[in-house]
Amino acid sequence: MSSIIGSQAADIPYNMTTTGFDVPGFRIVDNLGVVRGVVVRSRSLFGTVGAGLQTLLGGNISLFTELAERTRKQAFDTMLVQAHRAGADAVIGIRYDANELMKGVTEVLCYGTAVSVEPLEV
Questions:
Q1: Which is it for the CA torsion 19, 20, 25, 28, positive or negative?
Q2: In whole angstroms, what is the distance from residue 102 CA to residue 95 CA?
Q3: Which fold has domain 16-119?
Q4: Mean pLDDT (whole number) for 90-112
């Protein structure tokens, strides 16, 4: 299963994203609004059993770590696609949120503000 929903591929490079509210070397010229990527994931039976076995040994539970990382990346990439569709060059103020919808089912939300930018004159 691909980490990006459908065949989404964003034209906004990762270096044009930030948790801050400006992009170094650029001036924000337009605020295009909030964009978000939402992923709802459940654990598989295999993953739950495998992770249960890993808990016996202690330490990092790599099956859950990998699932969490893939889910966050998918939410992030989906947000970038939404920003691209809005005409953005960058996304600022990026945040994540997660909620358990029911036992074993989690929603991961990645959101930020889509903006148009232009390089600062030197």
A1: positive
A2: 22
A3: Translation Initiation Factor IF3 (3.30.110)
A4: 92
